[in-house]
Amino acid sequence: MPSYSGSARASSAASFFSLCPASIRAGLFGLAAIAAGSGGAFAQDAAGSDADLVAKGRYLATAADCAACHTAPDGGKPFAGGYGIESPLGTIFSTNITPSKTAGIGNYSQEDFARAVREGVAKDGSHLYPAMPYTAYVKISDEDMKALYAYFMHEVKADDAQPEKTALPFPFSIRTSMAFWNLLFLDNTRFKPDAAKSAEWNRGAYLAEALEHCSTCHTPRNELMAEEGDKALSGSAVGSWFAPNITSDKTSGIGGWSDEELTQYLRTGHVAGKAQAAGPMAEAVEHSLQHLNEADLKALVVYLKATKPIASGETTPRYAAGKPSVAEADLRGLPGQAMNKEGFHIFSGSCAACHQVDGEGNNHYPSLFHNTATGGDNPDNLIATVLFGLQRTVDDVPTFMPAFGPNAAFTDRLSDKDVADVSNYVLSHFGNGRVQVTAADVLRVREGGEKPMMAEVAPFIVPAIVAVVILLALVIALLVARSRRRPAHA
Amino acid sequence: MANDAFDADLIVIGSGVMGGIVASQVAKAGKKVIILEAGPRVDRREIVETFRNAPVKLSLANAKLQGAGSPFPSMPWAPSTYGDYLQYEGPVKYNTSYLRVVGGTTWHFGSALWRMIPNDFKIQSLYGRGRDWPIGYDDLEQYYNKAELELGVTGMDGQDESGQGGHPMPPRTMPFPMKQLNSSYMFTTLAEKLSVGGFNPVLEPHGRASRPYGNRPVCAGNNNCNPVCPIGAKYDGSQHIDLAERHGAKLLDNSPVYKVEAGEDGKITAVWYKKPDNSEHRLTARYFVLAAYGIESAKLLLISTSDKYPNGIANSSDQVGRNLMDHTGISMNMLTKEDIWPGEGPTELLVYLNQRDGAFRKDYPSYKIKVRNTVPTSPDDRRLHQEGHHGLQARRDDPPVFGPFAQLGDRLRTAAARRKPRHAIEDQVRRARHPGSGPLLFGDGLLECRPRPWPGRPEQDRPAA
């Protein structure tokens, strides 16, 4: 049977470009195109490669989730790139970062590699799009960078396939503009351990800030799409999805979770009665977090529980809202009299067979109450889950919810209004009833979320320049005409 | 691409599993495809809700026999076979119920997806009955593989599907696309007990996903395979129509075809269809596929008469529309000494094929014993009411146990330990209880079987697939 293109994956990456924080995945965009033309010879010393170093590099590459972007889904060669990511600014194709000398990074020296990963500058000096979170990777230690380099050069198989080249529209096609952005927002320093904190906290901080790059999604960004450090991890839109507040705040963040729950969540993407990972977070769990060792997961939890608490307005923790519903007894068989009839109708027909009429779920399907997707102030994750479904494979066991949006079969597809109605039914019966969803909200989520300011103004930049040029031309013409008229009158 | 002289490269009449697969393959190849369907499109949730709200819930056969209808729509231009659309002549009622909607009858099939066994192809030479096929099992094997991948078949590798408890049969060059679902408590218990009497349990190959397959989620054991899988885990023909449309095929619903036109050379040149407003339309194509089920296909050929073809199209043999055979079947209920908890998982899975192949085929045909696994909600419900439980209170007293098939075994064993009824009054699963009667005797008293007292008529049933 057909395997339809994964809408959740595409949409989660919809705003990958860090001009719009999107996927949590890491990438090294632009490397291949640049590497191709550079003739610098790199003497690959296979004999000098150390198996331990390579193994360490493999683990680090997993922790940094490189493959998530550089390995195309559905059978792409590892790290050969070619995954087209729909960003608000245009499609960005991930690059080949295999050691191919023609298509990949085979000609990169250790220094070239480190500069690309940390500063977003390719071997030939051109700038990468900051789709890749190099503002996080900049903190990777020299030692780890060496291991990563060893892994990519000695274990990853060279693949000479040339992925499609990224061609964003003007003005984003000018990669040099990133130099200015880097000047403002790239702090080119390595991770500095805090001697006052435990070794475990420091390990967690390094993992979270340098490799797993949690802040790429969870930290809000300013108008120029740079992370706002004073609001670190307090929640941000990620394309269609919302990466929630994961500071240690007891109400707004994850302060109310036990260490065991957090560890389980990072490890499996699911904690009954709390939350489940969908969209980009499901990818992070699937490709990266589930593969971390116990000590590293524990260190991450220690770090997360000790972050600066930031309240973001909630009055109850988003996992605490709601209770089982007995509404079906009132609504069944009473069409026309039922409150929110449409929402109930859709809920009963499309949701209740798995999540149960009372919303309690079971061992396979999450409860709809005591669920962060329904209990927070932001309904985007609920909407996105209905639209795009959920795919997450942990320990080779797939967790799957079908999509009900555009990618659903016509027999199961819901309209924007249907999704709004059923979301409102779910919110009012199982979650945060103060939140209302409109069809316009669903449209926004379906189309990849709020566009960043830069993407919004992009279409006007060229017309604006044209207008200025025309205006200037008119002014000049006027001045010329005047100056010609003068002698005539003189 | 389509020549301008034609409306399409291919026109497919009928949007069921056959038409859908052909249409999607040809559309994928970049050809222009039009699919004509007499009935309307349906939304899964609408069918689920119609069924859930229906006061009477019966098996497909009983729904028809007792006039309870179907949750699928009946249109004046494509009347439901649950009504009086089909007119019977002859001594035996033809209790078929096919669906006239986009996606076709697989919407309500039990999703049994068997291969034939090699001996089925040569019953004349082996048993002196019928005719041998001009091809053998080996000629078809690779196409079975393709079909199983296309439909997403779940099955148990290594079983003797000829029912003799022997070597794997039929031979396969490819494992099943999906591994078999876990056996339920009832199936496991029955299989153990009946094996003593020489019955070889076989778990049926079927179209319910046991892992995410395309858009299909894993079977959650809603026990509602007919009339509709509420979550789309079970294959139905609409899935290939969806695929065909994603590759550019055009589907015209509510468009019953009433005439097939043939040219002088006998090649089909056009088809005529009507819209609900009674307007008449003609479409041409380079090729046509007629895939409208045994009754509608024959009907269309027979009514497409012309001077050159006074007996209809493709009917020089005068055999079109003759020799039609339905599945026939008999349903029986049984009582067991101990609780065995029917209703867990899909409505069917465990079958007995001891009589699938053997010398007996000289004298009588093969048959299958299917253990039907529907939830006995109705009698449980009645008992609860008699015991004074009502409405939601009954539900709280006897909390429903249902959910993903894989999980149910353990929960049922817990429920069995409590020896309490586990079916709720408003649970999510099928409410049907098969009325019927008659003893079902198994060997030497392993099970205490006696006719179940039940008001109503014995069921003349038709296997769902």
Detailed description of the structure:
The complex is a heterodimer of chains A (490) and B (465). With 490 residues, chain A is mainly alpha-helical. Chain A has helices at 7-12, 31-37, 51-63, 67-70, 110-119, 134-137, 142-154, 177-185, 199-211, 215-218, 259-268, 279-287, 294-305, 327-331, 341-355, 372-375, 380-388, 416-430, 439-446, 453-489, and strands spanning 84-87, 90-93, 236-238, 241-243, 270-271, 275-276, 390-394, 397-401. In chain A, the strands form four sheets. In chain A, strands 1-2 form a two-stranded antiparallel sheet. A two-stranded antiparallel ribbon of chain A has the order 3-4. In chain A, a hairpin with a 2-residue loop joins strand 7 (390-394) and strand 8. Chain A is globular. The model of chain A is unreliable at 1-47 (pLDDT under 50). By secondary structure, chain B is α/β, with parallel strands linked by helices. Chain B has a domain at 1-109 and 236-326: 3-Layer(bba) Sandwich (FAD/NAD(P)-binding domain). Chain B is 24% helix and 12% strand. In chain B, the strands form four sheets. Chain B has a six-stranded mixed sheet with strand order 6-2-1-9-8-7. In chain B, a hairpin with a 5-residue loop joins strand 7 (257-262) and strand 8. In chain B, helix 1 (17-28) runs parallel beside helix 7. The longest helix of chain B is centred in the first third of the chain and has 15 residues, at 137-151. The two termini of chain B are 37 Å apart. Residues 394-465 of chain B have low confidence and may be disordered. Chain A binds chain B through residues 1-4, 326, 328-329, 332-333, 345-346, 348-350, 352-354, 356-357, 362-365, 391, 398, 400-403, 407-412, and chain B through 24, 41-46, 48-49, 52-53, 103, 149-152, 211-218, 220, 222, 224, 230-232, 235, 238-239, 241-243, 245-246, 391-392, 402-404, 406-407, 426, 428.
